[in-house]
Design a protein that fits this description.
348 residues, two-stranded antiparallel sheet
């Protein structure tokens, strides 16, 4: 269900780590391309598929492409690079970085620092994409706030200070490589499907796969952005916290588990966001799969007791590390540990 913003006490005091006006033009130009290109391709694709039949190669490349960018964003950008939920080999990190960079989002460096700032000031001044407060710490109404959290924040004049939220990242060769080659990977994201379509069906299927790749990108982009907007407005809570994060099953399906946003804000560094057996978390299962083949280790999991229902993880699966109520961020920035309140009790 939806929870009204009036239940939140919003602190409007300025926060460190926010850069006003500086680099805002580059931010807007970057996002104009990253959003506009696949959107234009999707609109063109609607007209294309009205006059051209959909073949199996378009469907397969759409599905495989969606899985690749979804895993790259959820397992790679989010759980590995942002929160250090597990450790892996260097070549796996490079592969996850490539997959996530193909999603037509901001660079890996920008994505991680933006996400860490969101966790540091969730639904308060300093949160870059809250439905309740904008980049200048002004309160938002419902519709304007949803728009800001979904897409508007990518075109405002506020940027994240890498010196505060990404000091460790500037020394990471993987992240720096993808910062330098950022625009190469969106091209790969649509060029590879085009080449596959050409190989299996000629020029017609090549363009069909290209337009399908654009549509796949737009669907996934909006699924991720909806976690910022709808995921702080509509859904259910397993944990009562000093923010409005929600678990949303539809978004969890579309983002392979990242839609369990309330769980994630309770245990930000947990490799699993689905805490109970009815909360299927494909990204978490992928990380467990990597562990079984020796490619993931030192995995962080949430506390063993997660409520009245049986936890999704066995004791064996939790034996590599736990994440308690208090946690350290993956960066040197100070990140709040949320104070829980009993169900039904109003926020302080």
């Amino acid at each position: 269900m939806a929870i009204s913003r009036k239940n939140l006490v919003i602190d409007a005091a300025p926060r460190p780590g926010m850069i006003f006006a500086h680099a805002s033009l580059k931010k807007r130009l970057d996002n104009t391309f990253l959003i506009g290109f696949p959107l234009a391709g999707s609109v063109a694709g609607i007209f294309w598929f009205r006059s051209h039949p959909i073949h199996w190669v378009e469907i397969v490349t759409f599905a495989i492409g969606y899985f690749i960018v979804g895993m790259g964003t959820g397992v790679g950008f989010h759980r590995y690079f942002s929160h250090k939920s597990f450790e892996t080999d260097s070549w796996v990190a490079y592969l996850l970085g490539a997959f996530g960079s193909m999603s037509f989002q901001s660079s890996l460096l920008t994505w991680v620092t933006d996400h860490r700032r969101h966790h540091s000031h969730t639904d308060n001044c300093g949160d870059n994409h809250s439905p309740f407060v904008d980049g200048h710490c002004d309160h938002e109404n419902s519709l304007r706030g949803l728009f800001h959290a979904h897409i508007g924040w990518m075109f405002d004049d506020v940027s994240t200070d890498t010196n505060i939220y990404g000091r460790d990242l500037v020394r990471d060769p993987v992240i720096q490589f993808y910062a330098r080659t950022h625009y190469f990977w969106p091209v790969v994201s649509v060029a590879v499907p085009w080449a596959i379509g050409y190989a299996f069906g000629g020029m017609t299927d090549a363009w069909g796969c290209f337009f399908a790749a654009c549509m796949r990108t737009v669907l996934f982009q909006n699924s991720v952005w909806a976690v910022n907007s709808l995921g702080h407005t509509f859904g259910y809570e397993n944990y009562n916290m000093a923010n409005n994060s929600k678990n949303n099953r539809i978004l969890a399906i579309l983002t392979f588990g990242d839609g369990y946003h309330n769980n994630h804000h309770r245990y930000p560094r947990s490799a699993f966001h689905g805490m109970f057996r009815h909360e299927t978390d494909l990204n978490g299962l992928i990380i467990l799969g990597l562990r079984k083949v020796g490619l993931a280790r030192n995995i962080l999991f949430a506390d063993g007791y997660l409520g009245d229902k049986r936890p999704v993880l066995s004791a064996e699966d939790r034996d590599e590390g736990t994440v308690g109520a208090k946690y350290r961020a993956a960066t040197g920035a100070t990140v709040s540990s949320w104070k829980l309140r009993p169900k039904g009790q109003a926020q302080p």
